């Protein structure tokens, strides 16, 4: 009996042991089945096929302990899609590390992970998670919590301050939190090394007690609404290596106590409102690599001590009020990579040793008062990518070799006093894409060697003293997009070879001494802007050039003529005739013109005499309309209403908009206008509905008429009667953005598209933020973005839509204002338009600019739009590249991706998470492909060379 009991006991112990050992392992294999049913992605599907049986410890991304328990799951950037199963912890109780970042995890925070009581590291960054966050207090063993780059919202989870084991806390880029201030409880985190709270809706001041968190190594508070001074107590964080406070509203001076942070590696307080001087103490920090203080109001000199630095890689202090000289030793003892001191009041000579250690990529000193010559040794700085010294008082010759630097992509010497000749070494410039030397005193001839710099896209040598011919070899520069040579003393003829510049978009040869004919072959190019004016050209102007409306481009060439007669559009060009008849005709012309001028003058005088400011104009004598129009005008009008009315004939129709017919009207004085005749669906009883419409329209038009902004189409006046409404706008010769992107024969390059994006954003930002009450456009789309001759975008057709749609008068689009493909999702449910609806639609336009695709395309699949398509693509690196318009050469990929990110934020389904238009403008400016500061590049440089990467 006793023995039996003992045996039974042993048996039960054994079985218990076996059970307790096997059950969880059994559980674990369930776990993988569960994961595979909840999540999808190529790598996950490999789990079953990769190994035999239950050898999941060998699965990629999985690590077990010696007993076979899963302790680590790392699926970072596996293109996983789906929801994390909520009960994973009941299968893998011993889990210590869970990394699921850079995937597309749907839904909210997976609260199930709280049951993994051993969890030490949780990384869910960049995973599309949204919603409120739970209380973290019970995560007792968590050391690393990374939820960065998601769309979490609601209250910031202050409860993390109870997780005293935390060493790394990363909430970067979760802009949906409601505004919060750093709570004192944060100081409970005695082990915290990294506190990342970038773009997290923080406001208020940086509390002085932060100086007590002496375990901190990285402190990142950028992109918030922090104000007040930088507390001197920060100087007590003796372990600090990285301090990022940029993009806030910090005021006061930079505390010299920061000079006590002897471990400091990266200090960035750019884009704030700091005043005072740059403390000498921070320039003496022994390990400082990155010092960025740009866009503040700093004064005084750049401390000489920075010239002694042996660690500095980047100094970026542009857009301040700094004065005095640059420390002459700067770069002498250190591997300087970037120097940007642009837009200050710095003077004196340029530092000679800046490239001493051969690592300099960026030398940017634009817009200062530097004088003297360019040091000869700059020409040996082979590492340079960008060299920009424009808008200074620099003089002397261009050092031989400078223009031929092997890696340089932009060389900008414009707006200085440089003289001498253009060095022939330009022929060695293998990577040069932009060369700006305009407005200097460069003489001699344009070296034919320039044709060997085969990557040149832009050349501006205008307003110099260049003489000699235009070298025909220039036709070899197949990528050339812009060639500006105006205002020189170039002689001889225009080379035929220019016609091989198939990408040429802007060509200006005006104000030179060019002779001979305009080559017929140039017609193959038809750039957007062409200027041959004020030369000594002769002979007939090729017909297609005139037809393209480029007539003004030929003025000031008395011997040029038009091969056939054009009604009135080219006043400056006489008809090509045989010499004797020309003379006679000329006399007749002069007489006729004189008579005409006298008559017109007399009529104008009469008209003024009788006064023309009558509000109600009787349109007698016109067959087209015989009703009285009421006119509301917003600008000084240089035209006569009668002329407008007369021109409303079918021949002048240029399009049918959603709400009316558009006419292009060219007036006798050469001015062009677009007139939109709104369809007013005649009602039987003109007294009721229709009048109400008119009143509303008028109120709207009144507001619009008062708007003055460079990115909003000018409305000159409005005529209305019971029958129709006519709106007179400025004429935009390049049509709308839709046609340009999706139908145009002109391929817009990325810098142009970026400029267009910024322009639209500025226009909308003005409507949203600078007007009271704000105006909501309601129908932002690429057909409503018009482009003028210089491709400056202007927003058109706003507000009007609302009035028309609210009255149901418009049958061509849906009942709600807005256009399918551009419509914010929330607008479909409640027809209440908000500014965030416009932001969404703008995001769609941005995507059109980036991808070159329409908002709805067959290839996106049924019921799928561009937003869905982009969201799918950006999950993988290759996908991102496929999103970018393949027609573009690909030279601005980084910048395009940066703008893509903005577009994705704008089209976020949660309105509150979309940025405001003001923010969008700022973000877009930061992504400027042509801006010398290249803020983003700094970040990239940092990432490459710094061990403490920006998360
Ligand atoms: C996994 O095993 C444990 C312990 O053996 C058990 O308590 C738990 O209920 C199991 N979980 C599931 C989901 O089967
Ligand atoms: C932190 O923990 C304490 C004690 O468990 C609790 O009373 C408090 O509410 C927690 N704080 C937060 C913010 O959750
Ligand atoms: C910070 O720490 C010091 C001592 O190290 C202490 O005297 C002071 O009270 C602390 N400040 C706060 C606000 O906790
Ligand atoms: C910190 O810096 C300030 C001014 O630069 C100095 O007065 C102070 O003594 C320093 N503190 C420590 C602890 O080194
Ligand atoms: C730079 O270093 C030298 C040598 O150590 C020293 O004499 C000089 O004072 C330093 N200059 C500045 C401005 O700190």
TrEMBL record:
Residue positions binding ATP: 682
Single GO biological process annotation from the record: reproductive structure development
GO MF, any single term: protein serine/threonine kinase activity
Membrane topology: Single-pass membrane protein
Keyword Repeat appears in the UniProt entry: yes
Subcellular location field: Cell membrane
Gene Ontology cellular component annotations, sorted alphabetically: plasma membrane
Entry keyword set: ATP-binding, Cell membrane, Developmental protein, Glycoprotein, Kinase, Leucine-rich repeat, Membrane, Nucleotide-binding, Phosphoprotein, Receptor, Repeat, Serine/threonine-protein kinase, Signal, Transferase, Transmembrane, Transmembrane helix
InterPro entries assigned: Kinase-like_dom_sf, Leu-rich_rpt, Leu-rich_rpt_typical-subtyp, LRR_dom_sf, LRR_R13L4/SHOC2-like, Plant_LRR-RLKs, Prot_kinase_dom, Protein_kinase_ATP_BS
Transmembrane segments: 588-606
Domain annotation Protein kinase: ranges: 648-931
SMART domains from the UniProt entry: LRR_TYP, S_TKc
Signal peptide: 1-22
Protein name per the record: Receptor-like protein kinase HSL1
UniProt lineage: Eukaryota, Viridiplantae, Streptophyta, Embryophyta, Tracheophyta
């Amino acid at each position: 009996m006793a023995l039996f009991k003992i045996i039974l006991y042993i048996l039960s112990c054994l079985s218990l042991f076996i059970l307790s050992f096997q059950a969880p392992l059994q559980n674990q294999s369930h776990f993988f089945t569960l994961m595979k049913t909840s999540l999808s992605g190529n790598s996950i599907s490999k789990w079953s096929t990769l190994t035999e049986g239950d050898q999941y410890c060998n699965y990629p991304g999985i690590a077990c302990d010696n007993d076979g328990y899963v302790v680590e799951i790392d699926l970072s950037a596996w293109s996983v899609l789906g929801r994390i199963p909520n009960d994973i912890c009941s299968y893998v109780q011993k889990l210590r590390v869970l990394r699921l970042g850079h995937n597309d995890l749907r839904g909210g925070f997976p609260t199930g992970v709280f049951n993994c009581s051993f969890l030490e590291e949780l990384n869910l960054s960049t995973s599309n998670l949204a919603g409120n966050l739970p209380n973290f207090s019970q995560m007792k063993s968590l050391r690393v919590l990374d939820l960065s780059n998601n769309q979490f919202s609601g209250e910031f989870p202050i409860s993390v301050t109870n997780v005293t084991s935390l060493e790394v806390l990363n909430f970067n880029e979760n802009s949906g939190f409601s505004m919060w201030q750093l709570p004192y409880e944060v100081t409970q985190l005695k082990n915290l090394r990294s506190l990342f709270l970038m773009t997290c809706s923080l406001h208020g001041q940086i509390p002085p007690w932060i100086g007590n968190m002496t375990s901190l190594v990285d402190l990142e508070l950028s992109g918030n609404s922090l104000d007040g001074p930088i507390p001197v107590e920060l100087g007590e964080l003796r372990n600090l290596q990285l301090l990022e406070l940029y993009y806030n509203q910090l005021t006061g001076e930079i505390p010299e106590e920061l000079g006590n942070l002897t471990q400091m590696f990266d200090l960035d307080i750019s884009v704030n409102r700091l005043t005072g001087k740059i403390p000498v103490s921070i320039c003496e920090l022994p390990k400082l690599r990155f010092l960025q203080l740009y866009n503040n109001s700093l004064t005084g000199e750049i401390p000489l001590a920075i010239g002694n630095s042996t660690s500095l890689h980047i100094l970026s202090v542009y857009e301040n009020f700094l004065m005095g000289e640059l420390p002459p030793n700067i770069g002498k003892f250190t591997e300087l990579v970037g120097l940007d001191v642009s837009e200050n009041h710095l003077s004196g000579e340029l530092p000679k040793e800046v490239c001493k250690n051969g690592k300099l990529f960026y030398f940017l000193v634009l817009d200062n008062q530097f004088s003297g010559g360019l040091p000869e040794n700059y020409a040996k700085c082979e590492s340079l990518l960008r060299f920009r010294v424009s808008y200074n008082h620099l003089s002397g010759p261009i050092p031989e070799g400078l223009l031929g630097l092997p890696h340089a992509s932009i060389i900008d010497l414009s707006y200085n006093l440089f003289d001498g000749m253009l060095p022939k070494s330009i022929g060695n410039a293998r990577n040069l894409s932009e060369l700006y030397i305009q407005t200097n005193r460069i003489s001699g001839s344009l070296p034919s060697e320039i044709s060997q710099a085969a990557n040149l896209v832009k050349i501006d040598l205008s307003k110099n003293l260049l003489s000699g011919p235009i070298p025909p070899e220039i036709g070899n520069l197949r990528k050339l997009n812009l060639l500006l040579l105006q205002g020189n003393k170039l002689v001889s003829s225009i080379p035929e070879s220019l016609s091989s510049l198939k990408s040429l978009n802007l060509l200006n040869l005006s104000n030179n001494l060019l002779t001979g004919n305009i080559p017929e072959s140039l017609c193959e190019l038809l750039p957007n802007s062409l200027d041959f004016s004020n030369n000594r050209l002769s002979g007939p102007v090729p017909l297609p050039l005139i037809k393209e409306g480029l007539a003004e481009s030929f003025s000031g060439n008395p011997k040029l003529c038009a091969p056939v007669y054009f009604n009135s559009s080219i006043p400056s060009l006489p008809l090509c005739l045989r010499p004797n008849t020309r003379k006679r005709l000329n006399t007749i012309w002069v007489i006729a013109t004189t008579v005409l001028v006298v008559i017109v003058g007399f009529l104008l005088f009469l008209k003024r005499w009788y006064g023309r400011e009558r509000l109600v104009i009787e349109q007698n004598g016109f067959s087209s309309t015989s009703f009285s129009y009421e006119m509301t005008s917003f600008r000084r009008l240089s035209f006569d209403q009668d002329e407008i009315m007369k021109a409303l004939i079918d021949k002048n129709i240029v399009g049918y908009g959603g709400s009316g017919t558009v006419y292009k009207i060219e007036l006798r004085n050469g001015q062009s206008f677009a007139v939109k005749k709104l369809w007013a669906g005649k009602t039987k009883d003109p007294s009721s509905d229709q009048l109400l419409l008119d009143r509303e329209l008028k109120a709207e038009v009144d507001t619009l008429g008062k708007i003055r902004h460079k990115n909003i189409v000018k409305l000159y006046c409005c005529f209305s009667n019971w029958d129709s409404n006519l709106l007179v706008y400025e004429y935009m010769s390049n049509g709308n953005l839709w046609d340009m992107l999706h139908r145009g024969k002109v391929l817009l390059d990325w810098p142009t598209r970026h400029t267009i994006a910024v322009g639209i954003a500025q226009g909308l930002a003005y409507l949203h933020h600078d007007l009271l009450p704000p105006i909501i456009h309601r129908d932002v789309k690429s057909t409503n973005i018009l482009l003028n001759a210089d491709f400056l975008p202007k927003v058109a057709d706003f507000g009007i839509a609302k009035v028309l749609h609210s009255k149901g008068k418009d049958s061509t689009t849906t009942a709600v204002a807005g256009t399918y493909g551009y419509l914010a999702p929330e607008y479909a449910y409640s027809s209440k338009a908000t500014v965030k609806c416009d932001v969404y639609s703008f995001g769609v336009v941005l995507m059109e600019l980036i991808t070159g695709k329409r908002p709805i395309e067959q290839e996106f699949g049924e019921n799928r739009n561009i937003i869905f398509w982009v969201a799918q693509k950006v999950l993988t690196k290759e996908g991102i590249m496929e999103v970018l318009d393949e027609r573009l050469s690909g030279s601005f990929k980084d910048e395009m991706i940066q703008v893509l990110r903005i577009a994705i934020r704008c089209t976020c389904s949660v309105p509150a998470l979309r940025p405001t238009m003001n923010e969008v403008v700022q973000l877009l400016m930061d992504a400027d492909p042509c801006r010398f500061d290249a803020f983003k590049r700094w970040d990239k440089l940092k990432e490459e060379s710094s061990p403490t990467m920006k998360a």
